[in-house]
Amino acid sequence: MSPVLLLIEDEVLLAQELAHHFAGLGYEVTLCATLADAAGALAPGGCDPWVVLSDMTLPDGNALDLLQARRTLADGQPGVAPSAPEDRITMGEEWIFLTGYGSVRDSVRGLRLGAFEFLEKPVDLPHLDLIVQGAVRSSRAQRRLSAIDAADDARYPVAAFAGRSAPARMTRDLLQRLARVPFSAVLLEGETGTGKGLAARILHHAGPRSGGPLVEINCAALPHELLESELFGHEAGAFSGARQLRRGLIEQADGGTLFLDEIGELAGDLQAKLLKVVEDRRVRRIGGSRETAVDVRVLAASNRDLAGRVAAGAFRSDLYHRLNTFQVTLPPLRHRLDDLQDLVPLFVAEFGALVGRRFPALPAALWPALAAHDWPGNIRELRNVIERCVLLADSGQFPLHLLPFVSSGRAEGSAGQARPAAPILTIRLDGERSLEQIEEDVIRAALAACDGNLQAAARLLRTRRETLRYRVQKYQLRDSGVNHAPR
Ligand SMILES: Nc1ncnc2c1ncn2[C@@H]1O[C@H](COP(=O)(O)OP(=O)(O)OP(=O)(O)O)[C@@H](O)[C@H]1O
Ligand SMILES: [Mg+2]
């Protein structure tokens, strides 16, 4: 694909010479003689140049003003509320300026605006070629990165949080509203697997910071010292082993989002340092004497009762209240079973695509079986269950029998395969019976419930047939208590 070059030059002869030269080198050249024309060429649906080669002074103004306008559209204006993601542009071009007379003020301003290079006229063509080639390489790299970012943004719109239930709809509404608010921190709470990680990605990618970094760290995953230096960075020589200066993750998240997973595990001293980051937007590296300004949004997730930890004195209340200004509580799956109707087809399609298999009709018995389960692992557990079924299915039929909980009373009953209620055993712990005798009672009851069938009793006790046979012999259960000899 040939690189696109936008040439902004009002001197007709020079413009024609450059256009001819770069077209000959394989560039696709668009020529404009005024800033107004160039603004049109740069607008969405225009020529989308990789490199802009521009004269500085044009009949309708200074080209730096056009560059500045582009930057503002791309990054937002400092101090001004960020523009909504759909209004923002991605700058995929590098700017090279040709100046008639060396203006220091212009070049300083240009460098601040991120111009690639300044060249004085008359230009030396071989030198210009090298500079333009460098700009093309840089633009190509940026385009590749923004294609990755755009793919992530496309993967995490608010609608990625699936579910038709009222709690799921309310969660989506809240995420939608938060994505547009310039919050400094949001607390995400919910049991394991309820979608806190997903909500964090949505808040980043669907919000105005999607062009910035999303830096994620799990506070429970690292020992204290390592976590501190990962988060805050260190100066060279701050401690033995710290040979070079290292910017911490908080600094790396500058202009973007810092996602602190399992925040409840953060030690007390790090809680204090984090509070400073959220309140004052400043960070001090370990061993550092000065603070660095950072502009990060903090998303903090917890699957424990953080308010309870505050009450117990294990988590700082000032940090809790700072993080808790906005809270998103992800409801457990068992409180929104209606969402199964959306989540199951989603996961069936996702894993079906991996193995090239489609399940046009999901069996009716699937729904009551899924609804009967308690889902302690929430949506992650559901996703894993569906993955297993889809990957192990050997036909276009969804394999109900592979549901790990399908043998539990309620599920099977509703799936239409009647089975007697499981026996209930009462064991009096009054010191009369030993552990071995209790084991014997349990085995005896299991065999009785299974009509003496050793295989079935082993399944009921979730042990191997051989293990059970050994114990049956040990306790000599063949002739006592059991009506039928174990088969
Ligand atoms: N509403 C939803 N729609 C679609 N997928 C979801 C939804 N909620 C969660 N998931 C998916 O379920 C899985 C588990 O979610 P996630 O990792 O976000 O949970 P979590 O709350 O962060 O869990 P943990 O506390 O264990 O870290 C992920 O694959 C996620 O994409
Ligand atoms: Mg998570």
Describe the model.
It is a single chain. With 487 residues, this protein is α/β, with parallel strands linked by helices. It folds into four domains: 4-153, Response regulator (Rossmann fold), CATH 3.40.50.2300; 158-331, P-loop containing nucleotide triphosphate hydrolases (Rossmann fold); 334-414, Helicase, Ruva Protein, domain 3, CATH 1.10.8.60; 420-487, Arc Repressor Mutant, subunit A. Helices cover 44% and strands 13% of the residues. A five-stranded parallel beta sheet has the order 2-1-3-6-7, with helices on both faces. The protein has a five-stranded parallel beta sheet with strand order 9-12-15-8-16. Helix 1 links the parallel strand 1 (4-8) and strand 2 (28-32). Helix 18 crosses helix 19. The protein binds adenosine-5'-triphosphate (ATP) and magnesium ion. Residues 196-197, 261 line the site of magnesium ion.
CATH fold-type name of the largest domain: Rossmann fold
Poorly predicted tracts of residues: 78-82, 407-420, 479-487
- Top-tier CATH class of the largest domain: Alpha Beta
Sheet with the most strands: spatial strand order: 2-1-3-6-7
**What compounds sit in this structure?**
adenosine-5'-triphosphate, magnesium ion
Tell me the number of structural domains. 4
Instruction: Say how many strands there are.
Output: 16
Computed structural class: alpha/beta
Arithmetic mean pLDDT? 86
CATH H-tier superfamily of the largest domain: P-loop containing nucleotide triphosphate hydrolases
Kindly provide the radius of gyration, computed on alpha-carbon positions and rounded to a whole number of angstroms: 33 Å
The major β-sheet equals: 5 strands, parallel
Spatial separation of the terminal alpha carbons: 74 Å
What would CATH call the architecture of the largest domain? 3-Layer(aba) Sandwich
DSSP helical segment count: 19
Shape field: elongated
As a percent range, the share of helical residues equals 40-55%
β-strand amount: 5-15%
